[in-house]
Amino acid sequence: MNKPDIQDYRYHAILCCGKKCEPEGDRSLLLHIKSRLSELGLNDVRVNRAGCLGVCEQGPIMVIYPDGVWYCDLNKGNIDQIIQQHFIEGNPVKELVFHISGE
To answer: Which of 50, 66, 90, 95 is the most buried (most CB within 10 A)?
Structure first.
């Protein structure tokens, strides 16, 4: 059996696109983060959407693996901040973090 091939990603971002996090259903944050990553050539960051991450307070919510960093209350401005500070510089944006797995 041939197994699928996949490239290695430095980060895997999962963004909640559930009804409470994206009430308009337009997935504008998802489109924004994918567009910005593409513009910046950050091909080592994989972004997927989730129907619900189970934490609806202060949504939209995003979790970044392998770091296990959970962000809340997202908008386009702080998505840009996460791209710069977390994905490019390697430092979580502390003021947006509400949970880090294992801590």
So the answer is: 50
Q: Average of pLDDT values for 38-60?
A: 91
CA torsion, points 43, 93, 29, 53, in degrees to nearest 10? 100
Distance, in Å, from the CA atom of 20 to the CA atom of 22, rounded to the nearest integer, reads 6
Question: In whole angstroms, what is the distance from residue 14 CA to residue 81 CA?
Answer: 16
User: How remote is the C-alpha of 64 from its chain's centroid?
Assistant: 6
Q: Rounded to whole angstroms, how far apart are CA atoms 64 and 47?
A: 9
Biggest distance spanned by C-alpha atoms of the chain: 47
Domain ranges of the chain: 22-53+72-93
> Which pTM was predicted?
0.90
